[in-house]
UniProtKB/TrEMBL annotation, chains A, B, C, D, E, F:
Organism: Alteromonas lipolytica
Pfam families assigned: Tautomerase (PF01361)
Protein name (record): 4-oxalocrotonate tautomerase
Cited SUPFAM superfamilies: Tautomerase/MIF (SSF55331)
Protein family membership: Belongs to the 4-oxalocrotonate tautomerase family.
Region: Disordered, residue numbers: 62-81
Bias kind Low complexity: ranges: 63-74
Keywords: Isomerase
MF-aspect GO terms: isomerase activity
Chain ranges of the 4-oxalocrotonate tautomerase-like domain: 2-57
Length: 81, 81, 81, 81, 81, 81
């Protein structure tokens, strides 16, 4: 211990994952004073349809936020006529 | 929070997973009174040889249950002679 | 399957947890068509110092948001003099 | 319950995973006295760049250990001249 | 690796948990051929209101099964009059 | 995402856990380029009888290592007579 399960969206390169693991390991060594060899990190990657916030995928969420912004601007445009 | 890890057998469509995530999110919003945006769901899918009940895959288990049923019926047939 | 690990902040009553488990189970039965008996839910509760967003506990985060709001209002007040 | 999540390196055959699941199930039945049908095992497999000890993949770690051994032997060789 | 997360109902003694960990470790060593030192087991215990099957705690489920058995016997008794 | 489950031995102070969460969050922001607000960390703490390496608790393991060292030294002492 510490043992970490790290959930990431798919799409990182091997190099990025290695860098993240090294950085997190160092962070734990310096903040908790644990031995470097005791830190174990497991990465699990999730595809677009395997992660949801508010019941929406990241894509659906971006679209919902964009729509919300556009409809917030529309009354203003309407007034501007 | 809530943060959910949902383990499923492989084979669901993207639409089914989206529907499940939406339904579970609504269930948590209405039962716990949490904000919709605070609900995060992570899906991990498992293949046939990555899930075991009684030390058997679902396929082995179905066959075992079928065999048990057949051998339960056989003495009856034997008697029926 | 489905098997769910549900992470919650500490502080819910037993009744709330039961209600959440029932609601989530029904959500999965109706959205995925699984048998009710196949749904297993494990709850793990986390204390204030066991959950972090942006490296902050929920308490630290509320205070940070409050401070940000107050400092955003201050220039306006200053101008208003 | 018991419900087990078993993290393995990728590369085991289906037969090996089945054997492991059966052996672990029997181990739990005999040591805890649980019913065989109550034991559920979920396997998650991790690739070379999804598991880190000391911030290193297994490959990097083997190379680091080999280098350490070689540099430990070198002073001896140097002395041997 | 293997790294196992083992979810158990609360109530086992320390000795039972040690025995289970030893038995599972031996099971993995003999079935997968891994080194004993590479096997890590994490136990998480869950209270009565932190584990649900069919949306019911184990207690609710036992009562539901008992009720189902009793109501299955009642028509027979009624007929027997 | 990233969402991290961090398993620790019991016994850290709240301050140590906060420091670890901050350090790990910064490590992920700088190595993966993710937004600070997207990093969620869940800590689960395990008691002495809830974590096993080689089927032994940390205490049993220390004693086993000590015994191994002592018995490794004994033949030498015996020879030294």
């Amino acid at each position: 211990m510490p043992i970490l399960e790290m959930h990431l969206m798919k799409g990182r390169t091997e190099e990025q994952k290695c860098n993240a693991a090294k950085a997190v390991t160092e962070a734990l060594v310096s903040s908790l004073g644990v031995k470097r060899e005791s830190v174990r990190i497991l990465i699990t990657e999730h595809g677009e349809h395997d992660f949801f916030v508010s019941g929406m995928t990241m894509k659906e969420r971006s679209q919902a936020q964009l729509s919300a912004q556009q409809s917030a601007q529309q009354p203003l445009n309407a007034e501007g006529k």
